[in-house]
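Appendix B, record 7
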Amino acid sequence: MHLIHSNELIKPTLGRMVVEAPYVAAYRKAGQFIMLRIDEYGERIPLTIADSDPEKGTLTLFYQIVGKTTRNLADKRAGERLRDIAGPLGHPTDIRNYGTAVCIGGGIGIAPILPISRAMKAAGNKTINVIGARTKDLLILEDELRSTGDEMIVCTDDGSYGKKAFVTGALEEIIGREKVDIVVAIGPVPMMRAVSELTRGHGIKTFVSLNSIMVDGTGMCGGCRVSVKGEKRFTCVDGPEFDGHEVDFAELMARLGTYRSEEAECMEHHNCKLEGVTSHGK
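Structure tokens (predicted):
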């Protein structure tokens, strides 16, 4: 059982939790993730690790409310406990001194880009951080990322803050003015695909972190399989990071939508139950 130190909604559908997981906190590396289960009746969900405190034995996790499990996770309070946290899982980011590293985070993908940016900087890279969201209210961790890199660029689709541009626009500007040795991009699949297509034309090594459907996190279920360079790979054990120029993004996007109707139905049923409890309480 894992004690929750804090849990808060920092945006209407985005939560941040600090929870005890001493083993994971001691051994996790940038780019790895955990599998979390709220109780013995719940499903396991993958969450990337935004930060850790080995001395306190805690992890900082960000989650987006998209279904029943993440809705239940948001309802948890400090002092309560989670049933299981398994990890660290997956291969860590290949951190080394490349030269100039551009770390790109979009939406909730900004959270896992933070430890990668820190690690790239610690390895001696010039680190340029680029974050983007549809609007200012959806941006997170700006101050933390601003303090980790040599340069920070913020983009919003609607121009409400920073540059009115997609992250690819900012990346194109950077490539136009200086040599970029590596790009790491985490966020919505269309964004990672666009970044990879842009860097392909410039011959820039590019890593993307895939948030595939996962059940167990050990490669047994096969739910997270993805085609990389024409071969089947499993995000949980072979990833979560892959060469963005080798990922079949069209297949990935199709697979991510496999259970969309079931997820919506489950969420609707869950909300109806909550409304019933509220009405009964009145």
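Remarks on this record: Residues 260-281 form the longest helix (22 residues). Residues 197 and 245 are 7 Å apart (CA to CA).
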